[in-house]
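Input sequence (510 aa), recorded before submission:
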Amino acid sequence: TRRLPDLQSSDGYLVCHPLTMSRADTIVLLAFQAPIQIQSGNRIAGNGIRNFSGVRPRTHEVCRSGHLPSTFLQSVAFTSLLCRRVIRRKVGTPQAQGAVRDATSDKGGMWCMLLAVSLCSATNAFLCMTFSVIEHMSAEALAISTLEVAGLYSIWLVVALAGLAPGTWMADRSQGFTLTWSALFNMASAVVRIFGAWQGSYHLIVASQILCGAAAWPIFTLPSKISHRCFPAQLRALATSIMLQANYAGWLLGIMFPALIHKIAPSFTKICTVQSLIVIGINVVALLALEVGISRRPPPKQQSMVSSSSGFVELVQAMAKYPRFSAQMFAHGMLGGVSFAAPSALFFILDTYGFSSSAATAVNMAFVAFGVAVGIYLGRVCKQKKSFGKALAACYSMCLASLTVCALLAANGMLGGSGWKFWVLLLLCAVSGGSSLGFIGIGIEAASLYPVRPSFVSWGVETGVLACAAVLSYYAAGRSGFLLLALATALCTAAHFASYNGGQTNDSKS
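Predicted structure, C-alpha cell format:
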C-alpha cells in the first residue's frame, strides 16, 4: 500500500488527506474538470470506492464546485479499474519474477547473439593464421623471408593488443556497434588481402593484417559480456567457452584450409581469394544474426547501467586490493599466451626438425582441435564455481607436463616426423592444446568471481594473452621453441597454484 502525500488547496485545486491503494505501487490521477476534495475515509480498492464510516459523504465535503457525488464515484471507480488493468500488464508480478524473465526469455535472441560473436571471432582467426600455414608459398609469392612471414602474425597480435582497451570500452557500451565494427573490418581485411595477393604486394598484406587486428579489438571481451548480459547463470560458463573457442575453431579451419582446397586453388593468390570470399559471406551472416539477436533480446537491467569508463579503475583497484586476483590475471594471461603462440610457432619449430608440411599440419590440427573440444566440454560441466578450481589445476598441470616432455624430446634429438616419434609428439601436442586452449573460458569465469565487471576481467586476461603471445610467437619460432613454451608454462603454473584458493574469497561475487 502506498500513501500519497497531502496536496494543499490552491486557487480551487484541492486534494486533501491521503489515499491508499491496495495491490499496486502506482496510481493514475485523472485530471477532472472540476476541483475535487477527497475525504480521509475514502479508500480506493481493487473493486471501486468505499467509505469506511458507512455514511455517504455530504455534497459540500466531496465537491465544492456543485458536481454530484455520483460523478465523483463513477470517475474514481473507472480510474481504479484502469489502474488494475495497466498494473497487471505493465508492472506485473514481483521483481524476482521479472528478473527470471529477463534472464531466460527470448532464448532465440541470446543464441543469435552467441552465433554472431562466434562467426566474427572464427573468421578473424581464420584470416590471421593464413600465412603461417603456407609459410614457404607466402615467402615466395611476396618475395620475403620466412622470418618476415612469421612477423605477419606478430603484426596482427600487436594491433589487436593496442586496440584491446578501446575495444573493451566499446563492448561495454554497445554490443551491437562493436559486433558491426568487427564484421566490417573483417570484410575490409578480406578485400585488401585479395588485392595484395593478386599484386604480390607485401605492404598490402601488412595492411590486411592491420585491419584484421582492428577487427579483433572487441571480440576477446565480448564473450563474457554477452554471456553475463544475455544468458542465465547456469549457462554462462558454457556460453563464454563456446564464443572463445570459436576463435580457436577459426584457427583450425585456417590450418586445414590450404590442404582442403589445394586441388582447386594450388597457388597463393587463389588461396587468399577463396578464403577472403568465404570470410565476406560468413560475416554477412553474422550481421544478420546480430540483427535478430538485438531485436529479440530483453532490455538491460537498471542496476547494470553504470558508467563503463570506471571499469578499468575497478580492475586496477581490485588487483591492488586482492593480490591473489593479480596473480590469477597474470597466470591466465601467460598460459593463454602460450596457447595463442603455439599454433603459429609449431610450424616453424617442426620445420627446423625436418617435419614435412603435412606432418606439421597434423600436429597443429591435433593441438587446436583438442583445445576446442576440451574448452566446450569444460564449459558444459563446470556450472558451479566450486568446480573451477579442479578444472584449472588439471589444465595447468597437464600443459606443463606435456610441454616439458616435448622440450626434453627436442633436446635429446628424439623428435621425428614419422613412426612412433611422430605419434608421441601428436599425443603430447593434443594434451598441451586441450589444456592450454581449453582452460580460457573457465579461467575468465573464475576471475570474474572478484568484484569486477566480466568484460574488464576479460580485458585484463586477454591483454596478458596477446602480450605474451606477441613475444612467444616470435622467439619460439625456432629449435628452442618447445623449451621457451615450457618455461613460460612453468612460470604461470607456479603463479596459479600459489594464488588460487578454489573461489573461496570473502569479497568475491556470489
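Checked by second reader. The chain has 21 helices and six strands.
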